[in-house]
Amino acid sequence: MSEEINSVQPKVEENKMGIMPIPKLLFNMAIPMVISMLMQALYNIVDSAFVGMYSSHALEAVSIAFPIQSLMIAVATGTGVGINALLSRHLGEKRFEAANITANTGIFLAICSYIVFAILGLTIVKPFFRMQSDLQEVVVFGEQYLTVITVCGFGIFGEIVNERLLQATGRTFYSMITQGTGAILNIILDPILIFGYFGVPALGVRGAAIATVIGQCVACILAIIFNITVNKEITLKISQIIKPKAREILLIYEVGIPSIIMASITSFLTIGMNLILKKFSEDAITVYGVYYKLNSFIFMPVFGLNNGMVPILAYNYGAQKKERIHKTIRLGMACAVAYMLVGLAVFELIPDKLLMIFSANDNVMAIGTVALRIIALSFLFAGIGIVSSTVFQAIGNPLHSLLISVLRQLVIILPVAYLLSFTGNVDAVWWSYPIAEIISFILSVIFLRITLKKL
Q1: Please, which contacts does 196-199 make with residues 24 or more away whose CB atoms are closer than 8 Å?
Q2: Rounded distance, CA 330 to CA 375, Å?
Q3: pLDDT band at 14, cuts 50/70/90?
Q4: How far apart are CA 416 and CA 410, in angstroms?
Q5: What's the half-sphere exposure (Cβ side, CA atoms, 13 Å) at 441?
Q6: Which end is more exposed in the chain, N or C (fewer Cβ atoms within 10 Å of the end residue's Cβ)?
Q7: What ranges make up the beta strands (E) of 359-421?
Q8: The model's pTM
Q9: Following DSSP, what letter does each residue of 43-78 receive, concatenated?
Q10: In 124-232, alpha helices (H)
């Protein structure tokens, strides 16, 4: 077998990220990512909707499993952010061999990440659920679901890293195809495997997990094929995958580790909030899990916009094109804020309709309607913060993003939620989100001004 998977040499002419007008470029890069993120968000909602139809205890189990799934995605996407930013910067500097090394090192890191989570899946799943719930049904459902997700989770790491290679070279259309295909396949397989249609045995919650990993694996295979066949600016080599350079790993994680920590904080926040909400009721925990499924439909398209911005910012940072960086930031912020305002309107006007998607019982409806309306107030400020974090990561100031994320989720939300829980009213706990978002918005603006002055 040839050592080179893709032997086509990279072209030296200017990449579109350095010459295409910014409005056209950003929409060209971001729209496929936004569409794919919307598909992924739709899958998250449909998946939980089918699980909710199967059993309310199963829905709670999937909600409790969210932090571990989120941690897996955090490691994959954080590593991907580091790969994306470094690879795009190398391309902007016309250092093509360095870009190749970054790409191959990224695949090695994806393999290592999967092995770590497979081991965790075989050891910590049952103790994790016993810590979060006193109901045996929830623990059993949770163990069935999360064991499959972790032990068979190689698809999510391979998918995300290979998609970042496509994004870094401007091929976001192909990234959209991979994510969209995986999400649609998940949606199709969910009811078949959960309820047992077309002669397939009813697998319940375990079926939902199997549908998820099948979708991830198919998306991973597609992304690898696209990198081999159409991604002409990188050359994948088996020798570089199995013998990565330590320096390249350090450079990737210089940006990637703060991104991983930022995304991982959500997992710890969710665990902490579940423990706080546990003293009110199991239904409050379910509401919190449902909120995170719903908010993915609001936040994930903005993250898609960010994924489109990262290579543009990093490339033009490497090419020293300051004005293009400023234009990208301004347009990105305008789009993010506009979309978050749409999300705010939906959560305020029809929270009951959103909850009905998950076959919510009366108590979940009562708690959730208030919760969605209060938490949604944080959307007013979140758009600026999300785009600012992307800027920090793309042009080499990831510690600013990390600091804001730690302050927002661990230093503000959890302590404030804990203090408000002493009111004895679960509705008060939800106010921790708008409070934290206002403070992080102020810090984001300050750090962004500092970063752009140094640019």
Answers
A1: none
A2: 26
A3: low
A4: 10
A5: 16
A6: N
A7: none
A8: 0.71
A9: HHHHHHHHHHHH-HHHHHHHHHHHHHHHHHHHHHHH
A10: 125-132, 136-151, 154-168, 172-195, 204-229
- Residue appearing with tokens 């390249």: 248
- Residue 284 exposure: Cα atoms within 13 Å on the Cβ side: 19
Tell me the longest C-alpha to C-alpha distance in the chain.
67
Tokens of 417: 């939620």
C-beta atoms surrounding 50 within 10 Å:
22
3-state SS class at 366: helix
Q: For residues 58 and 204, is the Cβ–Cβ distance under 8 A?
A: yes
Contact between 436 and 416 (Cβ < 8 Å): yes
Q: State the CB neighbour count (10 A cutoff) for residue 135.
A: 15
Between helices 379-394 and 246-278, what is the axis angle to 10°? Answer: 160
CA distance linking residue 371 with residue 373, whole number of Å: 6
CA distances from 76 to 44, 97, 162 (A): 18, 24, 10
| CA 176, chain centre distance (Å) | 15
CB 283 within 8 A of CB 364: yes
Closest among 390, 297, 293 to 343, alpha carbons compared: 297
Give the amino acid at 435: I
Per DSSP, helices labelled H in 230-281 are 238-242, 246-278
Rounded distance between C-alpha atoms, residue 190 and residue 196, angstroms: 10
Beta bridge partners of 237: 4
**Residues 122-176 pLDDT 10s:** 998 889 898 888 888 988 999 999 999 999 989 999 998 888 888 777 787 888 8
Query: For the residues 214-226, what does the mean pLDDT come to?
Result: 93
3-state DSSP assignment of residue 414: helix
